[in-house]
Amino acid sequence: GQNIDQPTEMTATEGAIVQINCTYQTSGFNGLFWYQQHAGEAPTFLSYNVLDGLEEKGRFSSFLSRSKGYSYLLLKELQMKDSASYLCAVRDNTGGFKTIFGAGTRLFVKA
Amino acid sequence: EAGVAQSPRYKIIEKRQSVAFWCNPISGHATLYWYQQILGQGPKLLIQFQNNGVVDDSQLPKDRFSAERLKGVDSTLKIQPAKLEDSAVYLCASSPSTGQTEAFFGQGTRLTVV
């Protein structure tokens, strides 16, 4: 089976940096996604990691350590519009590729 | 490029009634997913199709939920009969394949069972 853990809520200040952690357990790991979801909207893709290391994309970076079952999403220069839920999702290839989502971390950015 | 289309956007029904949701994926996308997202939780995979075949439906409550993807394009998800705990947003997503590609989500159908 799969198990994905991430903090329920985080609060950060506009202009600051925030790191959202995700730990996972899965038998057939085949990559990890981060999605952003604003309230009442659909999730949108942010990043994908399949190899260890850091992937940078503008203000957002994502890190993966497969041996530790650990990932984080780093958001720099926070803006008010970054207030949203951030979903960690693991692709598992046991019995066919499936993407399983964590419960999400609600990020509140304050002025 | 048109996105994933879902209808209706909102639906309110009484418990024990039936309801159906429709999804039109992005053209050419072979993989289609139905997720259930209860308020405050992450999306839960209900069923995944590859073309018109089912890849995974292990979390689909088959006594009341059914889904089909005729001709490997559009899909419908049905609930019969609905329960109060089925109140959720039902998200449809598609991707070019089951390989290492992200999923594109529709706006979802918000179902309220009263």
List the defining traits of the structure above:
heterodimer, A: 111 residues, mainly beta, six-stranded mixed beta sheet, B: 114 residues, seven-stranded mixed beta sheet, 0% helix, globular
Describe what this molecule looks like in 3D.
- The complex is a heterodimer of chains A (111) and B (114).
- With 111 residues, chain A is mainly β.
- In chain A, strands 2, 4, 5, 9, 10 and 11 form a six-stranded mixed β-sheet that branches.
- In chain A, a hairpin with a 5-residue loop joins strand 9 and strand 10.
- In chain B, strand 5 and strand 6 form a beta hairpin.
- Chain B is an all-beta fold and 114 residues long.
- Chain B is built from no helices and eleven strands.
- In chain B, strands 2, 4, 5, 6, 9, 10 and 11 form a seven-stranded mixed β-sheet that branches.
- The chains are: A mainly beta (111), B mainly beta (114).
- Chains A and B meet through strand 4, strand 5, strand 9 and strand 10 of A and strand 5 and strand 10 of B.
Output the helix-strand order of chain A. Answer: EEEEEEEEEEE
Average pLDDT number of chain B? 93
Report the strand count of chain A.
Answer: 11
Count of alpha/pi helices of chain B: 0
Provide a quick synopsis of the model.
Chain A is mainly β and 111 residues long. Chain A has strands spanning 3-5, 9-13, 18-25, 29-37, 44-49, 53-57, 60-65, 70-75, 84-92, 98-101, 105-110. Helices cover 0% and strands 60% of the residues of chain A.
